[in-house]
Amino acid sequence: MKRFNDCCIIGIDHGYGNMKTANCCFKAGVLAYDTEPLFTHEMLTLDNRYYLIGEGHKEFLPDKSGDEDYYILTLAAIAKELQREDLTEARVIIAAGLPLTWTSGQKKDFAAYLSKNKEVCFTYQKKDYYITIEGVKVYPQGYAAIAEFASTMKGVNLIADIGNGTMNVLYMINGRPQSGKMYTEKFGTYQCTLAVREMFMQRTRREINDAIIEEVLVTGAADISPADQSIIREIAAEYVSDIFRRLREHGYDESTMTLYITGGGGCLVKNFYKYDPDRVKFVDDICAAAKGYEYMAQVQLKAGAAA
Questions:
Q1: pLDDT tens, position by position, 31-65
Q2: What is the spatial distance between Cα 202 and Cα 275, in angstroms, rounded to a whole number?
Q3: Cα Rg for the chain, rounded, in angstroms?
Q4: Which listed residue, 43, 104, 113, 290, has the most CB atoms within 10 A of its CB?
Q5: DSSP label at 60?
Q6: What is the pTM of this model?
Protein backbone atom coordinates (compact mmCIF):
# COMPACT_ATOMS: atom_id res chain seq x y z
CA MET A 1 0.00 0.00 0.00
CA LYS A 2 1.17 3.50 -0.85
CA ARG A 3 -0.24 6.85 0.18
CA PHE A 4 -1.33 9.92 -1.71
CA ASN A 5 -2.64 12.75 0.45
CA ASP A 6 -5.19 11.02 2.69
CA CYS A 7 -5.88 8.14 0.30
CA CYS A 8 -4.57 4.59 0.29
CA ILE A 9 -3.29 3.44 -3.09
CA ILE A 10 -3.89 -0.31 -3.26
CA GLY A 11 -2.44 -2.23 -6.18
CA ILE A 12 -4.39 -5.32 -7.19
CA ASP A 13 -3.31 -7.91 -9.75
CA HIS A 14 -6.54 -9.63 -10.86
CA GLY A 15 -5.13 -12.96 -11.99
CA TYR A 16 -7.11 -15.94 -13.24
CA GLY A 17 -5.31 -18.22 -10.78
CA ASN A 18 -4.44 -15.87 -7.93
CA MET A 19 -5.29 -12.42 -6.70
CA LYS A 20 -2.23 -10.44 -5.65
CA THR A 21 -1.71 -7.23 -3.73
CA ALA A 22 1.62 -5.71 -2.72
CA ASN A 23 1.68 -7.97 0.35
CA CYS A 24 -0.83 -10.79 -0.19
CA CYS A 25 -1.62 -13.61 -2.59
CA PHE A 26 -4.77 -15.72 -2.51
CA LYS A 27 -6.71 -17.97 -4.87
CA ALA A 28 -8.93 -16.17 -7.38
CA GLY A 29 -11.98 -18.23 -6.53
CA VAL A 30 -15.28 -17.19 -4.98
CA LEU A 31 -18.45 -19.11 -4.14
CA ALA A 32 -21.67 -17.25 -3.33
CA TYR A 33 -24.38 -18.33 -0.87
CA ASP A 34 -27.78 -16.97 0.12
CA THR A 35 -27.36 -18.31 3.66
CA GLU A 36 -24.28 -18.41 5.85
CA PRO A 37 -22.08 -21.40 4.92
CA LEU A 38 -20.61 -23.85 7.41
CA PHE A 39 -16.98 -22.68 7.14
CA THR A 40 -16.63 -18.93 7.50
CA HIS A 41 -12.95 -18.07 8.01
CA GLU A 42 -12.54 -16.58 4.51
CA MET A 43 -16.10 -15.28 4.28
CA LEU A 44 -17.03 -11.86 2.90
CA THR A 45 -20.55 -10.54 3.43
CA LEU A 46 -22.04 -7.87 1.15
CA ASP A 47 -25.69 -6.90 0.71
CA ASN A 48 -26.91 -9.91 2.70
CA ARG A 49 -25.03 -12.41 0.53
CA TYR A 50 -22.18 -14.61 1.69
CA TYR A 51 -19.01 -15.21 -0.33
CA LEU A 52 -16.26 -17.71 0.41
CA ILE A 53 -13.00 -16.27 -0.89
CA GLY A 54 -10.46 -18.62 -2.46
CA GLU A 55 -12.99 -21.38 -3.16
CA GLY A 56 -13.39 -22.90 -6.62
CA HIS A 57 -11.47 -21.93 -9.76
CA LYS A 58 -12.09 -18.74 -11.74
CA GLU A 59 -12.86 -19.60 -15.33
CA PHE A 60 -11.16 -17.66 -18.09
CA LEU A 61 -13.16 -14.59 -19.13
CA PRO A 62 -11.72 -12.18 -21.70
CA ASP A 63 -13.78 -9.45 -20.02
CA LYS A 64 -13.06 -9.47 -16.29
CA SER A 65 -16.11 -7.33 -15.61
CA GLY A 66 -18.36 -10.05 -17.05
CA ASP A 67 -19.61 -11.18 -13.63
CA GLU A 68 -19.47 -10.13 -9.97
CA ASP A 69 -16.54 -12.34 -8.97
CA TYR A 70 -13.70 -9.89 -9.52
CA TYR A 71 -15.61 -7.16 -7.73
CA ILE A 72 -15.99 -9.35 -4.65
CA LEU A 73 -12.35 -10.47 -4.90
CA THR A 74 -11.31 -6.81 -5.13
CA LEU A 75 -13.06 -6.03 -1.85
CA ALA A 76 -11.29 -8.99 -0.21
CA ALA A 77 -7.94 -7.76 -1.55
CA ILE A 78 -8.57 -4.27 -0.20
CA ALA A 79 -9.54 -5.71 3.20
CA LYS A 80 -6.35 -7.79 3.35
CA GLU A 81 -4.21 -4.71 2.73
CA LEU A 82 -6.15 -2.62 5.25
CA GLN A 83 -5.77 -5.38 7.84
CA ARG A 84 -2.00 -4.97 7.67
CA GLU A 85 -2.38 -1.30 8.60
CA ASP A 86 -5.00 -2.04 11.27
CA LEU A 87 -7.57 0.00 9.32
CA THR A 88 -11.27 -0.64 8.84
CA GLU A 89 -12.13 2.66 7.16
CA ALA A 90 -10.23 4.25 4.28
CA ARG A 91 -10.40 6.35 1.16
CA VAL A 92 -9.02 4.06 -1.52
CA ILE A 93 -7.52 4.51 -4.97
CA ILE A 94 -7.42 1.16 -6.78
CA ALA A 95 -4.44 0.56 -9.08
CA ALA A 96 -5.12 -2.43 -11.32
CA GLY A 97 -4.09 -3.90 -14.67
CA LEU A 98 -5.29 -5.65 -17.80
CA PRO A 99 -3.55 -7.75 -20.46
CA LEU A 100 -1.36 -5.59 -22.70
CA THR A 101 -3.41 -5.50 -25.89
CA TRP A 102 -6.73 -5.35 -24.02
CA THR A 103 -5.90 -2.36 -21.82
CA SER A 104 -6.88 0.49 -24.14
CA GLY A 105 -10.16 -1.15 -25.15
CA GLN A 106 -11.28 -2.36 -21.73
CA LYS A 107 -9.78 -0.03 -19.12
CA LYS A 108 -12.70 2.42 -19.08
CA ASP A 109 -15.25 -0.34 -18.48
CA PHE A 110 -13.01 -2.13 -15.97
CA ALA A 111 -12.48 1.08 -14.00
CA ALA A 112 -16.24 1.71 -13.97
CA TYR A 113 -16.82 -1.88 -12.81
CA LEU A 114 -14.39 -1.59 -9.90
CA SER A 115 -15.77 1.79 -8.83
CA LYS A 116 -19.48 1.14 -9.43
CA ASN A 117 -20.15 1.77 -5.74
CA LYS A 118 -18.34 4.82 -4.41
CA GLU A 119 -19.09 3.91 -0.80
CA VAL A 120 -18.97 0.25 0.21
CA CYS A 121 -19.77 -1.38 3.54
CA PHE A 122 -18.91 -5.05 3.85
CA THR A 123 -17.71 -7.63 6.35
CA TYR A 124 -14.62 -9.77 5.86
CA GLN A 125 -13.36 -12.36 8.33
CA LYS A 126 -15.98 -11.09 10.80
CA LYS A 127 -14.62 -7.53 10.69
CA ASP A 128 -16.66 -4.62 9.29
CA TYR A 129 -15.12 -2.34 6.65
CA TYR A 130 -16.22 0.99 5.28
CA ILE A 131 -14.36 2.23 2.21
CA THR A 132 -14.75 5.08 -0.24
CA ILE A 133 -13.45 4.48 -3.76
CA GLU A 134 -11.80 7.75 -4.79
CA GLY A 135 -10.54 6.52 -8.15
CA VAL A 136 -9.33 3.62 -10.27
CA LYS A 137 -6.13 3.58 -12.33
CA VAL A 138 -5.67 0.81 -14.90
CA TYR A 139 -2.25 -0.08 -16.33
CA PRO A 140 -0.83 -2.71 -18.72
CA GLN A 141 0.16 -6.09 -17.31
CA GLY A 142 3.72 -7.20 -17.89
CA TYR A 143 5.20 -3.72 -17.88
CA ALA A 144 4.04 -3.13 -14.30
CA ALA A 145 6.31 -5.86 -12.93
CA ILE A 146 9.45 -4.12 -14.27
CA ALA A 147 8.23 -0.50 -14.10
CA GLU A 148 10.45 0.52 -11.19
CA PHE A 149 13.68 -0.52 -12.93
CA ALA A 150 12.63 -0.16 -16.57
CA SER A 151 14.74 2.99 -17.03
CA THR A 152 17.91 1.00 -16.27
CA MET A 153 17.38 -1.46 -19.13
CA LYS A 154 19.80 -1.23 -22.03
CA GLY A 155 19.51 -2.68 -25.52
CA VAL A 156 16.59 -4.79 -26.68
CA ASN A 157 14.63 -6.57 -23.95
CA LEU A 158 11.58 -8.77 -24.13
CA ILE A 159 9.11 -8.94 -21.23
CA ALA A 160 7.09 -12.15 -21.01
CA ASP A 161 4.42 -12.05 -18.33
CA ILE A 162 3.18 -15.65 -18.07
CA GLY A 163 0.10 -15.78 -15.88
CA ASN A 164 -2.54 -18.40 -15.24
CA GLY A 165 -4.79 -17.30 -18.08
CA THR A 166 -2.71 -15.26 -20.52
CA MET A 167 0.83 -14.63 -21.71
CA ASN A 168 1.68 -10.99 -22.38
CA VAL A 169 4.74 -10.07 -24.45
CA LEU A 170 6.25 -6.58 -24.64
CA TYR A 171 9.38 -5.31 -26.37
CA MET A 172 11.53 -2.72 -24.60
CA ILE A 173 14.34 -0.77 -26.30
CA ASN A 174 16.70 1.10 -23.97
CA GLY A 175 14.05 1.09 -21.27
CA ARG A 176 11.22 2.35 -23.45
CA PRO A 177 8.16 0.13 -24.16
CA GLN A 178 7.36 -0.37 -27.83
CA SER A 179 3.62 0.08 -28.19
CA GLY A 180 3.64 -1.43 -31.67
CA LYS A 181 5.27 -4.63 -30.44
CA MET A 182 3.11 -6.05 -27.70
CA TYR A 183 1.06 -9.22 -27.76
CA THR A 184 -1.48 -11.06 -25.61
CA GLU A 185 -2.17 -14.77 -26.01
CA LYS A 186 -4.51 -17.13 -24.17
CA PHE A 187 -1.61 -19.36 -23.23
CA GLY A 188 -1.26 -19.16 -19.47
CA THR A 189 -0.10 -21.89 -17.12
CA TYR A 190 -3.63 -23.24 -16.73
CA GLN A 191 -3.39 -24.41 -20.34
CA CYS A 192 -0.49 -26.58 -19.18
CA THR A 193 -2.57 -27.92 -16.28
CA LEU A 194 -5.40 -28.85 -18.66
CA ALA A 195 -2.97 -30.60 -21.02
CA VAL A 196 -1.45 -32.58 -18.13
CA ARG A 197 -4.88 -33.58 -16.85
CA GLU A 198 -5.94 -34.82 -20.30
CA MET A 199 -2.73 -36.76 -21.00
CA PHE A 200 -2.74 -38.28 -17.51
CA MET A 201 -6.26 -39.61 -18.07
CA GLN A 202 -5.33 -40.99 -21.50
CA ARG A 203 -2.29 -42.86 -20.23
CA THR A 204 -3.40 -44.05 -16.80
CA ARG A 205 -7.23 -44.02 -16.95
CA ARG A 206 -7.06 -42.13 -13.66
CA GLU A 207 -7.80 -38.55 -12.67
CA ILE A 208 -5.17 -36.41 -10.97
CA ASN A 209 -5.85 -33.51 -8.64
CA ASP A 210 -4.82 -30.07 -9.90
CA ALA A 211 -3.01 -29.44 -6.60
CA ILE A 212 -0.59 -32.27 -7.42
CA ILE A 213 -0.04 -30.95 -10.93
CA GLU A 214 0.62 -27.48 -9.54
CA GLU A 215 3.15 -28.82 -7.03
CA VAL A 216 5.17 -30.48 -9.79
CA LEU A 217 4.97 -27.39 -12.01
CA VAL A 218 6.09 -25.06 -9.22
CA THR A 219 8.73 -27.22 -7.53
CA GLY A 220 9.62 -29.75 -10.22
CA ALA A 221 8.59 -32.75 -8.10
CA ALA A 222 5.89 -34.18 -5.83
CA ASP A 223 5.35 -37.17 -3.53
CA ILE A 224 3.87 -39.37 -6.28
CA SER A 225 5.11 -42.35 -8.25
CA PRO A 226 7.98 -41.72 -10.70
CA ALA A 227 5.77 -42.85 -13.60
CA ASP A 228 3.03 -40.37 -12.74
CA GLN A 229 5.56 -37.62 -12.20
CA SER A 230 7.16 -38.38 -15.56
CA ILE A 231 3.85 -37.69 -17.36
CA ILE A 232 3.52 -34.28 -15.73
CA ARG A 233 7.12 -33.36 -16.42
CA GLU A 234 6.85 -34.41 -20.06
CA ILE A 235 3.80 -32.26 -20.75
CA ALA A 236 5.29 -29.34 -18.79
CA ALA A 237 8.45 -29.48 -20.91
CA GLU A 238 6.32 -29.47 -24.08
CA TYR A 239 4.37 -26.45 -22.79
CA VAL A 240 7.54 -24.48 -22.02
CA SER A 241 9.00 -25.34 -25.43
CA ASP A 242 5.78 -23.98 -26.93
CA ILE A 243 6.23 -20.75 -24.95
CA PHE A 244 9.62 -20.19 -26.56
CA ARG A 245 8.29 -21.16 -29.98
CA ARG A 246 5.61 -18.49 -29.64
CA LEU A 247 8.17 -15.94 -28.45
CA ARG A 248 10.31 -16.65 -31.50
CA GLU A 249 7.23 -16.17 -33.69
CA HIS A 250 7.00 -12.69 -32.18
CA GLY A 251 10.63 -11.99 -33.11
CA TYR A 252 12.49 -13.15 -30.01
CA ASP A 253 16.20 -13.82 -30.62
CA GLU A 254 18.03 -15.50 -27.74
CA SER A 255 21.43 -14.24 -28.90
CA THR A 256 20.69 -10.51 -29.08
CA MET A 257 17.88 -9.91 -26.58
CA THR A 258 17.49 -10.26 -22.83
CA LEU A 259 14.28 -11.97 -21.78
CA TYR A 260 12.59 -10.97 -18.52
CA ILE A 261 10.00 -13.49 -17.32
CA THR A 262 7.38 -12.42 -14.80
CA GLY A 263 4.31 -14.16 -13.42
CA GLY A 264 3.75 -17.70 -12.22
CA GLY A 265 5.03 -19.22 -15.45
CA GLY A 266 8.59 -18.37 -14.49
CA CYS A 267 8.86 -21.46 -12.31
CA LEU A 268 8.00 -23.68 -15.29
CA VAL A 269 10.80 -22.16 -17.34
CA LYS A 270 13.20 -22.68 -14.45
CA ASN A 271 12.16 -26.30 -13.94
CA PHE A 272 11.64 -27.51 -17.51
CA TYR A 273 13.85 -25.52 -19.88
CA LYS A 274 17.56 -25.11 -20.46
CA TYR A 275 18.15 -21.38 -20.61
CA ASP A 276 21.13 -19.04 -20.60
CA PRO A 277 21.10 -17.25 -17.22
CA ASP A 278 22.93 -14.31 -18.80
CA ARG A 279 20.08 -13.85 -21.27
CA VAL A 280 17.02 -14.94 -19.27
CA LYS A 281 16.12 -13.09 -16.09
CA PHE A 282 13.28 -13.78 -13.67
CA VAL A 283 11.12 -11.43 -11.66
CA ASP A 284 10.40 -13.89 -8.87
CA ASP A 285 8.19 -11.70 -6.69
CA ILE A 286 4.64 -12.95 -7.29
CA CYS A 287 3.39 -9.55 -6.10
CA ALA A 288 5.61 -7.55 -8.48
CA ALA A 289 2.76 -6.47 -10.76
CA ALA A 290 0.61 -5.22 -7.87
CA LYS A 291 3.59 -3.28 -6.50
CA GLY A 292 4.17 -1.89 -9.99
CA TYR A 293 0.58 -0.69 -10.25
CA GLU A 294 0.97 1.15 -6.95
CA TYR A 295 4.26 2.68 -8.08
CA MET A 296 2.82 3.90 -11.39
CA ALA A 297 -0.34 5.26 -9.73
CA GLN A 298 1.66 7.20 -7.15
CA VAL A 299 3.95 8.68 -9.82
CA GLN A 300 0.95 9.66 -11.96
CA LEU A 301 -0.94 11.20 -9.05
CA LYS A 302 2.07 13.19 -7.84
CA ALA A 303 2.74 14.43 -11.36
CA GLY A 304 -0.87 15.52 -11.70
CA ALA A 305 -0.77 17.32 -8.35
CA ALA A 306 2.42 19.13 -9.34
CA ALA A 307 1.10 20.22 -12.74
A1: 999 999 988 889 999 999 999 999 877 677 777 88
A2: 31
A3: 20
A4: 290
A5: P
A6: 0.93
